[in-house]
Automatic annotation (TrEMBL):
Catalytic activity as recorded in UniProt: D-ribulose 5-phosphate = D-xylulose 5-phosphate
Pfam families, A to Z: Ribul_P_3_epim
Record text on cofactor binding: Binds 1 divalent metal cation per subunit.
Name of protein: Ribulose-phosphate 3-epimerase
Gene: rpe
Binding site for a divalent metal cation: H32, D34, H65, D173
């Protein structure tokens, strides 16, 4: 079954604990934590302490999406804070193979994300090493943006070059709602990130369910 990862970027900062409990009880599988540095993307969000506080509180998998330059500087602290999955951007890294090994050496699962204009073929020679590929379906930096339609074709393409039997997660992030989810799952997505669709909806259970059907 597809794993639903609510993006805490859209949660109520002043009621974070309540929002996390709510999505946990509503059937979410992972918590998606967007880390932004104001350099790789034009926005600044949370650091490793935020992950630590959440990890102490929840039993859900902490899925940390690093939208930062030189992520290798911060991988040890995010891993020590309890990040279960650490995803770095292909566009933010020079030695991707080395950085992926570093994440795994620190005991986390390794993910690689690509921006909307990056070809999935760029990942062909790292697919044997990663646990997750994240296809961004908006330009990273903000929640609440419109889904970029050709991401569906990218998922299909990615699935076609995925090594057999490795069970690499194919994750999509940005502008995902119920109608789009169906197409993404059909194309091969195994994990869906959703911020606005879940947190802007009073009935989180219904919102999460609508992504799974
Ligand atoms: O990484 C990002 C944005 O850069 C995402 O995780 C967004 O936070 C998803 O939010 P919605 O598009 O679902 O509102
Ligand atoms: Fe994200």
């Amino acid at each position: 079954m597809v794993k639903i990862a609510p993006s805490l970027l859209a949660a109520d900062l002043l009621n974070l604990q309540k929002d996390i409990e709510d999505v946990e009880e509503s059937g979410a599988h992972w918590l998606h934590i967007d880390v932004m540095d104001g350099h790789f993307v034009p926005n600044i969000t949370f650091g490793a302490d935020y992950v630590k506080a959440i990890k102490n509180f929840t039993s859900l998998t902490c899925d940390v999406h690093l939208m930062i330059k030189q992520p290798e500087k911060y991988i040890p602290s995010f891993a020590q804070s309890g990040a279960d999955i650490i995803t770095v951007h292909y566009e933010a890294v020079t030695h991707l193979h080395r950085v992926v090994q570093m994440i795994k050496d620190h005991g986390a699962k390794a993910g690689v994300a690509i921006n909307p204009a990056t070809n999935v073929e760029s990942l062909r020679y790292i697919l044997e090493e990663v646990d997750l590929v994240l296809v961004m379906s908006v330009n990273p930096g903000f929640g609440g943006q419109k889904f970029i339609t050709n991401s569906i074709e990218k998922i299909r393409h990615l699935k076609s070059i995925m090594p057999d039997k490795r069970g690499v997660e194919i994750q999509v992030d940005g502008g995902v709602n119920g109608d789009i989810a169906k197409k993404l799952i059909h194309a091969g997505a195994t994990s869906l990130v959703a911020g606005s669709h879940i947190f802007n909806n009073k009935d989180r259970k219904k919102a999460i369910k609508s992504l799974q059907n």
